[in-house]
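Response regulator, Paenibacillus gallinarum. Tokens?
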Amino acid sequence: MLQILLVDDERSVVETLAETIPWESCGIGTVHEALSGKVALEIMENHDIDIVISDIRMPEISGIALITEIHKRWPHVQTILLSGHADFEYAKQAMAQESFDYLLKPVSDEDLMESVQRLVNRIQEKWETAASYQRALHAFQDNLPLLQSTMLHELLTGKTYDQKTLKDKLELLELPYAIGEDLGMLIIRMEEHLSEMASGDIALMEYAICNIINEVVQGHFHIWHTRDVHDYIVVLVSVRNPGKMFSSKHETPQTMLEHYAAQIQTNVQSYLKGAISISVSHWGKFPNEIGEIYERAVISMRKRMGQVQGLFVTASDEKNVPSLHAIRSLYKPPTLISLLEAGRFQDVELKIEQIFEELLHSSEDHDIAESSIEVYYALAGAFTYIIHKNGKQLSSILPAESYRYFQAPSYSTTKQLMDWSIRTLHYIRDDAEQELKDNHSTIVRSVQSFVDHHLASDVSLPAIADHVHLHPVYLSKVYKAETGEALTAYVYRLRMEKAAYYLRTSTAKIFEISELVGYNNTAYFIRVFKKFYDVTPQEYRESLPV
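Tokens:
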């Protein structure tokens, strides 16, 4: 939804437009009001305005001067000018300043809405043009290496795709890998000298090393690289032409990759004047075994190299490497903590179900009790983290039964542990939802109190938003969601109901009642009152029983 700014030195004109036009039906979400060009520019500086409707004749800064400044500082903003003077010179100036439209006052609601709707359509067309295929394609090509790196990083950390999605994404990112294809991996650690050189821009050093890798292996292998959380360079490798690769029967992809890895290490030393350590993985299938290959290569790097620099290890050197029994679902992105922080409680519950499904399946290979401990502490840690981050104690939102699990876990079966996890999640979710509801209710009460006490003065959306310290757009959405009524509609209705109350219970004159409910222009007050009640204030008073 767009934001519109109404500018006129007559308060009655601004308030009429703000309160009586059904802006939402035109695609307008937020209406701002200004009684001078100076105030209008201040609002422009603090809000993302899309459309400005301004009177031409105003003191200090005229409408022409205002839109000139707006087009100079915010060229994307569209403008409509209003004038009570049917003077062609004004129209020429408006056209010269590229104003979208020029309307004569008093303008009818229908004419103004028609002009605004055409302008909204024009803005939307510009957005569509900006997102055109050709422009998106250029941006895509510019960012292709980053997109490729990001996808590999996601696969390393456990993200999965269905076969069609994976195939489509590989094709889109121009990656020559196929499901079920054999692949190997290089894990490269930059040593002290290169790390110091890369401290200013590690991405530049990664680029240089990967260029060397590509030069060495491009005749026989495709490469796909990224940088992991350890700042290791991870290079995924697949055979370019399997049928034509080997000159003798003793050569295999593994032996050739190990040969090339040693050459890469030498070339980096020669051309970049620094050492790297390399771990060459065993081979596996794409994409299902990427995670396992990566983890084994990293473990090999950590266990067999330690802090010794410039070493070279390969999967061929490994003997009887035990299979990994970590519950991978616990660590696959998005993690439990990230889902809890985002308030995606349904997705957290699905993830918990996946974790326990994997836990039960893993019992076929090893003792489930060991993995249950891993699962329990991961879940308990994530729950404790989010509760404390929300500024609360465990005991304040969990009943005694669930809280005891954090003090001394007492599950005896996997099902009991899972049931506790789901119950605890539900308590956290219910507390978050209640807190959000309470916060929104507090906002609504604060808004209504402010409007009630300041009805005779400034109760525009920006003034109300400033009082409750919220962005006007967010405030409008919260108020509408909580009450079912737009905030501007509430202000208008309250003014009319208060006016009717004063007409029923007092002998105040019409102009006095007009001022009491925030209208300085009595004629304008009579107009909006009649629009609301279908009678003028005087007719309303005269119709009351004696």
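The CA atoms of residues 209 and 268 lie 7 Å apart.
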